Amino acid sequence: MGNKSSLLLREEEIAQIQEDTGFTPAQIERLYSRFTSLDRNDSGTLSREDFLRIPELAINPLCDRIVHSFFTDSNDDRVNFRQFMQVLARFRTIKRSKENKLNSREEKLRFAFRMYDLDDDESISKDELLNILHMMVGANISQDQLMSIAERTIMEADQAGDGKITFDDFCKALERTDVEKKMSIRFLN
Description:
Helix content: 40-55%
Shape: globular
Number of strands: 4
């Protein structure tokens, strides 16, 4: 079932992951246990299919985009534990006393931006925004209403007037949003 306890983390690995991500050793061990339970092949890596077995993720309308985010820094279709932890670190609550690059406001915004940037070209087009809106609301809103929302959003956020939202545009549009709280998950010890 992917729960090999012989694949335990060494103290130096825990210390390095703690340094990189800001998670406590107890959180790292708990997340490692979850990681190994998802690793059905005992390969030390997770596939896209492994992520899709997470019920809370499977029901999320942005499931495919969230799963995709775990693989952006992967050279293949597998994610190791460190890569897994680096993505999760972006959702840690920001502690002012402990600065961590992975869960800074900018990294949280960059993560959210990538959710919308479907073709990974560093900008969000009207079609990409429309696709994401459609994923989020399904058939609950008419295509005309979705188009109107997408056009208005592009018009309001696009600083250069080229019909696309850049990362800088995205940050400016969300400057009054408490991204730090909205993109944080409380990880249990």
